[in-house]
Model the fold of this input.
Amino acid sequence: MHQLVEQCQRGNAFAQKRLFDQFANRLFRVSLRYVRNEPEAEEVLMNGFLKIFRAIGDFTYRDENGLDAWLRRIIVNEALQYLRANRRLPLFQAHELADTQPDPQSLPDEGLDAERIYALICELPTGYRTVFNLYAIEGYTHREIGDQLGISENTSKSQLSKARALLQEWLTKNGYERETRRTS
Amino acid sequence: MNGKPDEHLDQWVRQSLNRLPDAPPPGTAFDKERLWVQLRPELQPSANPRRRSWAWWAAAACLAGVVLAWLVLNQPQPEQRVTVAQEKGPDAQILIDQKSKAEIEPERVAGVVSTTSRPFVKRKILGTAPVPAPSGGGTAPTVALSSESTVDTRTDSAVSTAPARASTVVVSVPRRRFRVVHLNELQAEEEIRPGSYRTERFVRLGMGNRGTPVPETSHPSISLPINSKSNQ
Done:
């Protein structure tokens, strides 16, 4: 992987293709968790990879986890920028919670736990989903989320709390209560 | 208080997502090959600027080399230098030499006058000012010479005066090429030199045909016809 990054830093097209192939699917999922719409997620992914290949010269490779985190951070920032540009942020209205219910058709079949949870997260309202993604999955702090989204820390906390409550409710309805309790 | 169970939920979700296969989500039509085809042309310009910048640097280096070579090849002969010779006394002299170039300080050299038969003297005339004569002599009009002045050896003669207070040592000159003249002598020469006078009127004698017609607007000429009868 280190050599692959070095080749990409030299502008090697084959190395760029290999890096793209290795991370495209994973980063597409990340993008889709934020923008939800598939063509928009592809656009975010494409712009993100453009930034990746232009900024990879400044990247210092340490290990694969560091590379994965760096790539993911670029895609997340690109997704947030896309949401901001399309005026979807901040969308933290209270009625989102009451109006939104997961579409049973969009959920994967039972047995595919990870896919089912992924689909539930994608079904969260934009504000809840964004804060939950940033805090619970990406590991941002509330202050960082507030800076990114232009909201206060308290707003970020309340959004996260509501997102968790809604997700818990959906998981319970889908039979995951025992699973989450067992893990915790 | 409520943070712990919530954090467990977060952790459980994270672990679940980490188990996701490295494939597009089911039900989506994501095709990474199609996206790469779109992405590839966008990546080309990112590689080109580096080459372009190298090309520009190379071109700039070549241009600089050409300019330097031209400057070296067209470098003028060693500059003829001016030697400033100053003597103690009211009539100090500045000698101009082929081999030495002196920068004449305005405060040290009060005035320099030079006469050249060819216009090869590069000098910047600052103005004229009377020079105080320390020995009680009369003041002579002088021309101050800036420190940028250089004199080409092709000059036939140069004359200069300097005040007595200057005390710079004379640089030895193998051959004296310039005549030292005082400014008053130059003015005397100008007065002595015969002037050329233009003929504004003339008298034409005789009947001969004129080769070229004279315009009517020119100065009127007086024609005196030669008539033998008039003398009778």
In short: Chain A touches chain B at residues 11, 13, 16-17, 20-21, 24-26, 28-29, 32, 38, 41-42, 45-46, 49-50, 53-54, 106, 108, 112-115, 117-119, 121, 135-137, 161, 164, 167-168, 179-180, 183-184 (CB under 8 Å).
